[in-house]
């Protein structure tokens, strides 16, 4: 109601999509300001409820820091900012702006990493929030593709539960293509397949099969009867 009184309202959404957002996602349906027509996403955590990770939102709120000069406004702690960026970049399955998002991670790492004490704390925080593997990939590709100044002992730390050699080679093949600029000159014959495989991976990570299969079947059906309709 507080948002509604300030001019924000949800768009029209069918009952299935409304239920999907409110029961399974990490945010409420997008809100649009009736005067400015700007869109706002309101998140209550950083990953959907269905993701097979033991991330507790209360840990994020407990570590949040006040924004200087803004009464009552809080922001994520530095490590949580990076983990938030990492989980959305590496587990979402959409890479049209992947290189920009990877650059965001690299810039955050460069800014906060000037303090040597930051790095061990980042590893500990990834473990505490069950986000070791997303952070591993974020550090790896920020270093390999953007030369982010990450200590090798941190990037390759066993505390991040790095994948085995075969899986690492596969993920390098996929992500090194997906994270290229979204332009024909940066694609090769395997790029489309790599993007599709990461899209499938993202859905597998996001939802268990008992929810995922009916959801994807419904999306496919809706596309046949409403080609222009947008579903989550």
Q: Please, could you describe this protein's structure?
A:
With 232 residues, the protein is mainly alpha-helical. It has a domain at 78-225. The chain contains eleven helices and five strands; from the N terminus they run αβαββαββαααααααα. It has helices at 2-5, 15-24, 57-63, 78-91, 98-112, 118-128, 132-146, 152-155, 165-178, 191-206, 209-225, and strands at residues 8-10, 31-33, 39-40, 65-66, 74-75.
How much helicity do the residues have? 40-55%
Q: Could you spell the SSE succession in H and E letters?
A: HEHEEHEEHHHHHHHH
Major sheet strand order: 1-2-3
* Beta-strand content: 5-15%
Taken from the alpha-carbon principal axes, the silhouette is globular
Helix count? 11
Topology:
Layout: H1 2-5, E1 8-10, H2 15-24, E2 31-33, E3 39-40, H3 57-63, E4 65-66, E5 74-75, H4 78-91, H5 98-112, H6 118-128, H7 132-146, H8 152-155, H9 165-178, H10 191-206, H11 209-225
Antiparallel strand pairs: 1-2, 2-3, 4-5
Helix pairs in contact: 4-5, 4-7, 5-7, 9-10
In short:
It contains eleven helices and five strands.
Short key terms for the protein model shown above:
single chain, 3-stranded antiparallel sheet
């Amino acid at each position: 109601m507080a948002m509604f009184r300030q001019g924000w309202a949800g768009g029209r959404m069918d009952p299935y999509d409304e239920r999907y957002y409110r029961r399974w996602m990490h945010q409420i349906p997008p809100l649009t300001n009736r005067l400015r027509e700007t869109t706002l996403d309101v998140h209550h955590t950083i990953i959907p409820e269905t993701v097979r990770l033991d991330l507790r939102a209360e840990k994020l709120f407990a570590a949040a820091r006040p924004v200087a000069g803004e009464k009552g406004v809080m922001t994520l702690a530095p490590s949580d900012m990076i983990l938030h960026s990492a989980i959305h970049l590496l587990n979402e399955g959409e890479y049209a702006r992947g290189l920009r998002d990877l650059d965001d991670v690299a810039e955050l790492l460069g800014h906060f990493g000037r303090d040597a004490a930051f790095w061990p704390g980042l590893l500990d925080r990834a473990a505490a929030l069950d986000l070791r593997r997303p952070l591993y990939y974020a550090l790896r590709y920020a270093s390999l593709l953007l030369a982010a100044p990450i200590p090798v002992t941190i990037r390759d730390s066993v505390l991040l539960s790095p994948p085995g050699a075969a899986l690492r080679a596969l993920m390098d093949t996929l992500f090194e293509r997906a994270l290229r600029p979204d332009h024909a000159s940066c694609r090769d014959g395997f790029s489309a397949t790599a993007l599709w495989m990461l899209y499938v991976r993202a859905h597998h990570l996001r939802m268990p099969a008992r929810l995922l299969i009916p959801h994807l079947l419904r999306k496919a059906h809706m596309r046949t009867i409403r080609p222009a309709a947008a579903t989550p």
